């Protein structure tokens, strides 16, 4: 393959996840990461961009196409006006990480043999991205949070039954059903729908306070967004995505104390080839969803500072592969792989 031209500008592109936003998801983290790289990449320009808020409804491919269209325009404009070659690092939170990875996979697939990828993606940083699904206990714990609205949730389950035969039973209180005993990965096949249902429970809880009947709002919500998260229960497709990606990537995921530790995402088994691309971030948040949603907050994520330096260390490793080998400071700690 023809090597990519030397990079003159390094673009950090941040993509929010399901129901996130450009204004509120990442807070000041993009600028922090840019600042670290400015100190360690003096030879070139480092720019941090937050991809504009997009609708997390419809198909995931629609979101991927939207990102690629925006990225192509952004890179073309910069390379034309600055007469520089840009290398992009895609940084996605939650489902945004899936959008980033599928965008890179699409670019690689559409690149003619022997030609460099353009726009050139030098690496992917994912933050709490459910590459293998959302952990089943996230749904269980969220149901406990909404225990006061179980009756409304059960009504929602009845309405949503046509799109998932097991949905109604999943919405039942734990004491009325058996606990699944499937493995972490096999559980992922139903976790995606469970996650959507869990959020629907939250929607139902709010609607129960403001409307006479929460069913309509819950049904509207799930019908608009279910197709976007449907990949979370495509177990085979999720594993193939991790095996097929040729661009360097790494996923940082939140981990709460417990036996076993509690995580928002399904973590790959240590035997998987791609397990080394996943690094835990220990946090003391109240629950998995809180840790997931606020991982870019310095005041709530106790691993916020290590997350930034470890992310910068990975980017420092990937930058030479993009065409230039700058003298990075060795003091930035490297992310440790899973045991």
From TrEMBL:
This is DUF676 domain-containing protein. Coiled coil: none annotated. Belongs to the putative lipase ROG1 family. It catalyses: a diacylglycerol + H2O = a monoacylglycerol + a fatty acid + H(+); a monoacylglycerol + H2O = glycerol + a fatty acid + H(+). Residues 11-135 form the DUF676 domain. It comes from the Eukaryota. SUPFAM superfamilies: alpha/beta-Hydrolases. Gene3D superfamilies: alpha/beta hydrolase.
């Amino acid at each position: 393959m023809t090597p990519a031209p030397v990079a003159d500008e390094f673009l950090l592109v941040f993509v929010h996840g399901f129901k996130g936003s450009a204004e509120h998801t990442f807070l000041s983290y993009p600028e922090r990461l840019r600042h670290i790289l400015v100190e360690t990449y003096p030879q070139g320009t480092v720019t941090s961009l937050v991809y504009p808020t997009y609708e997390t409804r419809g198909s995931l491919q629609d979101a991927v196409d939207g990102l690629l269209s925006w990225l192509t325009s952004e890179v073309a404009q910069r390379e034309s006006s600055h007469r520089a070659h840009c290398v992009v690092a895609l940084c996605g939170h939650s489902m945004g990480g899936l959008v980033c990875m599928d965008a890179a996979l699409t670019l690689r697939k559409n690149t003619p043999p022997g030609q460099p990828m353009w726009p050139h993606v030098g690496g992917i940083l994912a933050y709490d991205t459910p590459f293998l699904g959302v952990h089943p206990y996230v749904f269980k714990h969220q149901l406990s949070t909404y225990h006061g609205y179980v009756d409304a949730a059960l009504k929602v389950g009845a309405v949503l039954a046509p799109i998932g035969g097991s949905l109604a039973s999943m919405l039942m209180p734990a004491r009325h059903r058996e606990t699944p005993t499937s493995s972490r990965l096999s559980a992922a096949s139903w976790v995606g729908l469970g996650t959507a249902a869990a959020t629907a429970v939250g929607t139902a809880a709010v609607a129960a306070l403001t409307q006479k009947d929460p069913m309509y709002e819950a049904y509207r919500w799930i019908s608009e967004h279910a197709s976007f998260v449907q990949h979370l229960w495509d177990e085979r497709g999720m594993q193939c995505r991790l095996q097929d990606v040729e661009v360097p990537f790494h996923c940082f995921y939140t981990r709460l104390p417990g036996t076993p530790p509690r995580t928002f995402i399904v973590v790959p088994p240590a035997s998987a080839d791609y397990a080394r691309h996943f690094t835990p971030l220990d946090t003391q948040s109240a629950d998995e969803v809180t840790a997931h949603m606020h991982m870019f907050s310095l005041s709530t994520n106790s691993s916020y500072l290590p997350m930034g330096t470890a992310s910068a260390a990975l980017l420092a490793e990937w930058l030479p592969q993009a065409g230039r080998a700058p003298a990075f400071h060795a003091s930035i700690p490297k992310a440790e792989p899973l045991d």
